[in-house]
Amino acid sequence: MKKITLLFIASALIISCGKETEKTSLEELNTQKTVLVTKIDSLNAVLKSVEAEISKLDSDKNLQTVTILPVKNDIFKHFLEIQGVAKANKNIEISPELGGNVTAILVKEGQKVAAGQLLIQLDDSAIKNSINELNTQLSLAKTTFERQERLWNQKIGSEMQYLQAKAQKESLENNLATLKTQARKMRITAPFSGVVDEIFPRLGELTSPQMPIVRLLNIDNMYVEAEITETYLPIIKAGTETVVHFTSINKEIKSKISQVGNYINPANRSFKISINLENKDQSIKPNLLADIKIVDFETKGIIIPAALVQQDQNGKDYVFTVVSENNEQKVVKNLITAGNEYNHEIFVSAGLKETDTLVNAGARFVKEGDHVKISKN
Question: Is 185 left (phi over 0), alpha (psi -120 to 50) or beta?
Fold first, then answer.
């Protein structure tokens, strides 16, 4: 439209000039000039009016195109990220109290066993022989004692004979009880229900109290243990929300801190925490590495993408927002107070309202006061 209008003006001037050049008197030329200037002024006025209308109707006006993003009013959480190790309370290596040859292995590795179930039998033949011998002696001692007791009750015999018979019987009973206890110690049983993870000796091998013979564990309930620097001692409490992620098995569990240690390790100035975990599917194994996220800050408020925050020459944080002005979109600079940042988001404690609309794509190419076009894509 602009080009057409200018061509029209130029053509009119050329035509007018062509017709009027035949007149040569100064007066006529001045009159001609006045007429032409009047026509130009009139056409300029029309041109400005046409341009104004074009400007209103032209959607392709040369304005910066941006996208917008509403601010988010939600709960903001900041996490402390550390590493921990999975452990099981019921994870033990069973060693015999007495040494002996392995005469029977009654379970297999990987087998589930119940509490009290016999796992390994050690050679107890010598103890059984001693028990049999003592039973024979005890039988005679009981008979002797019973006779002495009857005589003593009848005031026959001496008190010394009665007490000696009683002492002999009781001594043999105690010795027999001791041997039976030793015999039980030659039977390695499960102290709790679980899974036999490993059997160390082979059939016929000699064991000793210094050597473990069975690793037994129950991983139905696990816990993760980690160390945290003492700086976080005022923040970390029992019951604090956590997210535990096991990268190796791609498993994530939401839980809470179950225990906070009371001892500061002087070597690294840290304290221990533990997080209880259910492990019904048995997928978590002892000593499995875990990535732990602990909530150390939580509040409700304005949350925006961290990439939209800029700094001015005074080091103050700001973002650009868009407001409507005379049916146009205008860029406004908002100074903000930025708080904690996590996962590419920032908590804004001051400077923005829930109704504000942020300049998203294109925020680095606009300045305060610019009029922009909003992309609908």
Answer: alpha
Residue 269, helix vs strand vs coil: coil
pTM of the model: 0.64
Which two three-digit tokens encode residue 190?
Answer: 């499960």
The type of residue at 67 is T
Looking up tokens 């700094």 gives: 311
For residue 132, count CB atoms less than 10 angstroms from its CB and return exposed for 0-12, middle for 13-18, buried for 19 or more: exposed
Residue 81: name the closest of 242, 269, 216, 277 by CA.
Answer: 242
Delimit the domains of the chain by residue range. Answer: 2-54, 64-76+300-374, 80-87+219-298, 99-207
Q: Do 282 and 219 form a contact (C-beta atoms < 8 A)?
A: yes
Distance CA 75, CA 299 (A): 6
Q: What are phi and psi of 241, to 5 degrees?
A: -65, 140
Pairs from 206-209 (Cβ < 8 Å, separation ≥ 24)? 206/99, 206/100, 206/101, 206/102, 207/96, 207/99, 207/100, 207/101, 207/102, 207/122, 208/96, 208/99, 209/95, 209/96, 209/97, 209/98, 209/99
Counting every residue written for the chain, the total comes to 377
Tokens at 255, concatenated:
């839980």
pLDDT of 48 > 90? The answer is no
Mean pLDDT (the chain, rounded): 86
* pLDDT tens, position by position, 108-120: 999 999 999 999 9
Q: At what angle do helices 125-153 and 159-185 cross, to 10 degrees?
A: 160
* Token pair recorded at residue 206: 């000699």
Query: Side-chain half-sphere of 30: how many Cα atoms within 13 Å?
Result: 3
Label residue 287 by pLDDT band (50, 70, 90): very high
The CATH T-level fold of domain 64-76+300-374 is 2.40.420
CA distance 351 to 298: 19
Q: What is the pLDDT of residues 9-46, one digit of tens each?
A: 445 544 554 444 444 577 888 888 888 878 887 887 78
| Residue corresponding to tokens 């942020």 | 358
Q: Does residue 323 carry a pLDDT above 70?
A: yes
* CATH annotation of 80-87+219-298: 2.40.30.170
